[in-house]
Amino acid sequence: MDELREEAVSSYSKAHPDGLPVGGGWVPCADSAPVVFPFDGSVVGHAPVGTVDHARQALDAAEKVFKEVAGLGAGRKRALLIAVHDALAERAAELEELLVLETGKPLVDCRTEVARTLTTWVAAAEEVARTHGETVPLDLQPLGEGMVGYWTRRPAGVVIGIAGFNYPLLLASHKLAPALAAGCPIILKPAPNTPLATLWAVHLIRKALAAQGIDPSAVQLVTGGVDVGETLVADPRAAVVSFTGSAAVGHRIARAAAPRKAVLELGSNTGFIVAADAVVADAVDAVLRGGFYANGQACISIQRIVLEEPIAAEFERALLARLGEVTVGDPRSPGTRVAPVINEASAQRILRWIDAARQRGARVLAGGALEGRSVQPTVMADVPADSELWCEEIFGPVVCLQTVPDIDAAIALVNQSRYGLQAGIFTKSLPTAFRAVDELEAGGVVVNEIPGFRSDIMPYGGVKDSGIGREGPRFAIEEFTVTRMAMIRP
Q: How far apart are CA 388 and CA 408, in angstroms?
């Protein structure tokens, strides 16, 4: 495994020039910061640390290149997006290994991330040909008689993309690819913990831009702290801000960006209902797959499991009997399913939340402690509804069980949350399934599959404090464009 690590680090260090991709080239940075492998605390590499001046330079360059990018024809944009896909696909295995090292996610999850990234770029290429408008019958009113009306979609302007640490390459791609498909220059700010794979990807994208005869300033990347993010978001030249991260930060970004558009994909505490008529073994399998992947650091991983009373005891027994299938270990091993979360501070926060719930009467059915650096796969029961473990986003390998008398109570309990990204239900009843789709307050409702299911072409986003706006290439392109109405009297 150490050999794999050395290969990945070596590939990254030779992958692109030093500094940050700002303007048409790479600008130097006075400072750098170590990127740490969460599994053992060793240094994977050093990432450049950007400044407010870098952010301003990037905004200047994006403003200058806007007309060029906005004027690209559909054929050139499609060719560019396919070229980026091909460049990333050629480096897929190396990107997987680098993602394991900087995120600490198990290899199986990093392979999924890269595969989904490639799908996203192809899907964006396909959507280029579907970005169109409609005619409008202006003669519906007397003043419009004899007139021709139609609307088109035009690029909104400079996009600021801010990605989370848990799926850095995929989340970045859900901003980069639609922005280019829409004809918008984009400035990307990756999470400080996980910038390496994204830096490499942006270098490959800029090479593809140059090969297509397009100014590389169309895609830029700036790292740095809160001051860098605030500079990018608050600048009036930023037409759209697309952010993936916590609700608290998302709220601040929305206020800073106003009145310009903010697309916010924020956190959640995903509810998962197991109805009395569900196939319990299938529901348990879904929890094993959907509660612990990516070390539990996924916005739509299962957190709150709501059990109808007739099957609650059976479900609990079956889950605990199979929990050993969730292997804790080195994330570089193909068999590992849980490894350390992103850093020690996050692990200690999770343990504090577990202990606080325990002190208030919650039962720890399994786990609840560290195994090496990893938080063990943990199952809790009877967690107080106002505890952080239940009402906030855990972002770790912890699931909480709660028993309710019937489906009415189950739906009500899931909806008693300030979040609403996705929710799930297992049931054999078609009326119950449709009722869940109609009544669960979430951006997506998954029936008889993990609520962490996401197709990269579907509209993805939440309600309430889980955000506003939708991702998925078709829907992100709509977010990154504005309608322009033409009203013509021949």
A: 24
Q: How many CB atoms lie within 10 A of CB 259?
A: 6
Buried b (16+ CB within 10 A) or exposed e, 405-437: eebeebbebbeebebbbbbbbbbeeeebbebbe
What would the pLDDT profile of 339-395 be if each residue is shown by its tens digit?
A: 999 999 999 999 999 999 999 999 999 999 999 999 999 999 999 999 999 999 999
Quote the tokens at residue 380: 């809790």
- Please state the pTM of the whole predicted model: 0.96
Is residue 199 within 8 Å of residue 222, measured between CB atoms?
no
Q: How far apart are CA 55 and CA 294, in angstroms?
A: 31
Q: What is the DSSP letter of 464?
A: G
Q: How does strand 238-244 pair with strand 158-162? A: parallel
Q: Which two tokens stand for residue 429?
A: 């009843």
Q: Which residues contact 348 (CB under 8 A, 6 or more apart)?
A: none
List, for residues 434-460, the tens digit of each pLDDT value.
999 999 999 999 999 999 999 999 999
Distance CA 357, CA 167 (A): 29
The domain ranges of the chain are: 2-266+465-488, 271-455
Q: How far apart are CA 432 and CA 428, in angstroms?
A: 8
Q: Is 357 helix (H, G, I), strand (E, B) or coil?
A: helix
The answer to whether 117 and 457 are in contact (CB under 8 A) is: no
User: Can you say how many angstroms the Cα of residue 134 is from the centroid of all Cα atoms in its chain?
Assistant: 32
Active site amino acids: 265, 299
**Cβ contacts of 438 within 8 Å, gap of 6 or more:** none
* 295 Rama class: left (phi>0) / alpha (psi -120 to 50) / beta: left
What's the CATH code, domain 2-266+465-488? 3.40.605.10
Reply yes or no on domain 271-455 having CATH 3.40.309.10: yes
Q: Which of 201, 43, 174, 112 is nearest to 460 (CA)?
A: 174
